[in-house]
Amino acid sequence: MIAIPIWALVGMALAIVLLATMLWTNLRERTFRIAVPDIDELEEALPSIAGMTKAIILPDNKIDVLQNGDELYPALLESIARAEKTIHFETYVWWTGDICGELAEAFARRAREGVEVRVMVDALGAMKMDKRLRKRMEDAGVRVARYHPIRLIDLGQLNKRTHRKLAIFDGQVAYVFGHGVARQWSGHGQDKEHWRDTGVRLQGPVVNGVQGVFAQHWVEETREVLVGEQYFPHLRKAGESRVHVLAGAPLGGVSDLELMFKLGLASAKKEILVQNPYFIPDEQTVRLLRRSVRRGVEVKLMIPGSVTDSAIVRHAGHRHFDEMLRDGVRIFEHQRTLIHQKIMVVDGLWSHVGSTNFDSRSFDINEEAGVGIIDESVAAQLKAAFEDDMKACVELTQPGWKKRCTLWHRSVDRLCYMLSWQL
């Protein structure tokens, strides 16, 4: 036995408490209440929206909207086959299904042919990834990296994942999307086994920005810096769309993505369309939506109905439905399948497409990526898809919601909402 003075034990206890407090303070998410004023004109606000989110609006881009796996996966496979120098791919989900083998074989084939192929997957999101596929790629020369693998030195970062979905080919063509790599995204959202999603193919100067987003994580995990014309070429005019790239999650600061979404809501004068699978608005977002309606804006939200992969998120999202419905926000529940696209369209001019969910996890914890697109034709395509999706929706009404929302339902909603800071 070793005798230890009481004062030493007290000192050790205080030191442990101090260190634990410092660690908690360093890792915790700080709560920020952003005061976003109404903005007179969306067009005038766009440079501010981009500037406040550390982005630059780049002109001269071409945008192709790709709906569901039936359009995205063939486009990706074609771009893989056409690449001459570099292929970069990043995803959160890599599960199981035929597309997993198709992509892995396509990456491996091009690597054997001398193309530089880099694949970044999230260590948790890709836990279901077939190890044989990974070995097939690596044996062929594909560099496969895992974002934030589970290891003692990185326990403080365990909760922070890459939720980005990106692909860049020869630094000339980029894709930003919400799809994972799994059988759930195959097809065209025709049933509950085949999810609905949206992505875009980009050509023009904005591709350099998407490449930079990929390079950020690649440097972090591999220490390899991507420098050279093969990664960041000089890009000529490809179309007429203006685009800005949005990425990142601050953990302890003002979220660029949250600020972008809220500025977009505050700028609307005519119409707001939102499709999102994980919609958990905070109180200020609810106020912005209600203020928008009072300004004469038609606000339509589309969220999953009974087909969802997270009942907790669905219940948490219900927390403010009654007051939104009471003030005229129109809410539609999609019934056929899980709508997984992350779409926002403001006034038929500005659109957002990417991986960002409308919740605290996307805004403040995970790494996300998306693009803001200033193009009336793209907005019209997304609106047409929204209206087509409405055919499989049930619109909520306040009287109907009051009947449906029993005391037990409200209690579950409130309990789940208490966890919203992690959802």
How does this structure look, described?
This protein has 14 helices and 15 strands. The protein is 39% helix and 20% strand. The relative contact order is 0.15. The model has no long low-confidence stretch (mean pLDDT 90). The protein has a single domain, classed as Endonuclease Chain A (Endonuclease, Chain A), CATH 3.30.870.10. Helix 2 packs antiparallel against helix 7 (256-267) and helix 9 (311-317) packs across helix 14 (407-417). The radius of gyration is 23 Å and the shape is globular. The chain starts with 5 loop residues before the first helix and ends in a 6-residue tail after the last helix. The chain has helices spanning 6-27, 42-52, 68-82, 98-112, 131-140, 206-222, 256-267, 283-294, 311-317, 321-326, 360-365, 376-389, 398-404, 407-417, and strands at 58-67, 86-91, 116-122, 143-147, 166-169, 173-177, 198-203, 241-247, 271-275, 298-304, 330-334, 343-346, 350-354, 369-374, 393-395. Strands 4-3-2-5-6-7-1-8-14-13-12-9-10-11-15 form a 15-stranded mixed sheet, with helices on both faces. The chain is of the alpha+beta class and 423 residues long. A hairpin with a 3-residue loop joins strand 12 (343-346) and strand 13.
CATH homologous group name: Endonuclease Chain A
Largest sheet: 15 strands, mixed
CATH topology: Endonuclease, Chain A
The average pLDDT value, as a whole number, equals 90
Please give the count of helices.
Answer: 14
Oligomer: single chain
The strands making up the biggest β-sheet line up spatially as 4-3-2-5-6-7-1-8-14-13-12-9-10-11-15
Coarse morphology:
globular
Approximately how much beta-strand content do the residues carry?
15-25%
Task: Return the domain count.
Answer: 1
Count of β-strands: 15
Radius of gyration in whole Å, from Cα?
23 Å
Uncertain segments are none
Q: Could you give the distance between the termini?
A: 48 Å
* Structural class by helix and strand composition: alpha+beta
Q: For the record, what CATH class applies?
A: Alpha Beta
CATH architecture: 2-Layer Sandwich
* Amount of helix: 25-40%
What series of H and E elements makes up the topology?
Answer: HHEHEHEHEEEEHEHEHEHHEEEHEHEHH
